[in-house]
Description:
- This protein is α/β, with parallel strands linked by helices.
- It has two domains: 3-47 and 155-338, 3-Layer(aba) Sandwich (Rossmann fold); 49-153, Rossmann fold (3-Layer(aba) Sandwich).
- The protein is 40% helix and 14% strand.
- The longest helix has 16 residues, at 160-175.
- It has eleven helices and nine strands.
- The model has no long low-confidence stretch (mean pLDDT 97).
- The N and C termini lie far apart (66 Å).
- It has helices at 22-28, 49-62, 77-88, 108-114, 128-141, 160-175, 191-202, 220-233, 266-279, 288-301, 325-338, and strands spanning 18-20, 33-37, 67-73, 92-98, 118-122, 146-149, 182-187, 208-213, 311-315.
- Strands 1-2-9-7-8 form a five-stranded mixed sheet, sandwiched between helices. Strands 5-4-3-6 form a four-stranded parallel sheet, with helices on both faces.
- Bound molecules: pyridoxal-5'-phosphate (PLP).
- Pyridoxal-5'-phosphate binds next to helix 3, strand 7 and helix 7.
Amino acid sequence: MRIEDLKKVSLGHYPTPLEKMENLSKELGKGELTIKRDDTTGPAFGGNKTRKLEYLLQEAIDTGCTAVLTFGGTQTNHGRTTVGAAIKLGLKPILILKGEDPGYLSGNLTLDALMGADIYFVPEEKDQEQAANEVIKKYETAGDQVYVVPMGGSNYLGAVGYIMSVKEIMEQMKAQALDIDHVVCTVGSMGTYAGMLIGAKYFNAPFDIIAVPVMPEEKDEEVLAYANEICEHFDLDITIAKEELKIAYGPANAPYAGEEYNKPDPITREAIMMLAKSEAIMLDPTYTGKTFRGFVELIQAGDWIKPHENAMFLHTGGAMALWTKEHLDDMQEQLRTNCKTTQA
Ligand SMILES: Cc1ncc(COP(=O)(O)O)c(C=O)c1O
């Protein structure tokens, strides 16, 4: 079967807007900058996981599952979107979250709780897989059939969502008379970047895909292996070569990913404030804020993105992480210097 003909459930609003960032383009003074608003896919505020979940949850339904279980950190965007998708489809949402119960539900956890998910906190030192298996057994004993969505929705099936998104972007470019030379996205569990890389080659896109990692460690080999596994699985008749990968790590002394995963830093927060102040678009401190910093610095450097070239930023969602207690506490001082507050 052709990849274009794979069945999927309908969860999101498409096409997601592809908008010009006129203020930011003026501010940076280079090519025309656009943004693809995959933060607006829905459900439960959506984000990049929705495109993946449409293919994954089709499989859940086809196999007669009654519950959906997935994994992540306590503030997982993927988990929150999976809960929303499960609710929409009448399936029971179960989350296995790595870490202790924070005792205070903020950010994504607020939304998970509002939607009535079954949430299991598994301390870091415990075997996560074993804990998940015990939870699955419990539901199965009670008569449920559990569909397990992999971390980040990134297996070969989830990646189809982002392979197909390339076609959507190309159609929008035509309809809106836009030229795009580069797309910049985040790479975490890899489904988004690998999917787009494959999609760009498969559909002969006029743009390349540049990724910014969420962790400072080297990711090239892992992405390459995953992408080619997907090509092989679907018999796509293409392979991705190492030279085609464009992963921007940033300066060695201040990588775009920061010191480590989910550790926001003042430079990332500056980038978040830059987009908020220029376009009124909100990013998150763990993924898109770091990627946007990379986007701006790549444009300023003029190497991978030349001064006359047009670049599109893929907004993959997650802004609700801004409202986690830890991030709010961390951000207070910087917020005060970013705005004027007056006690009138
Ligand atoms: C907001 C956001 N952007 C980007 C990513 C990374 O996407 P991927 O896991 O497909 O690499 C994630 C992953 O959780 C995310 O939550």
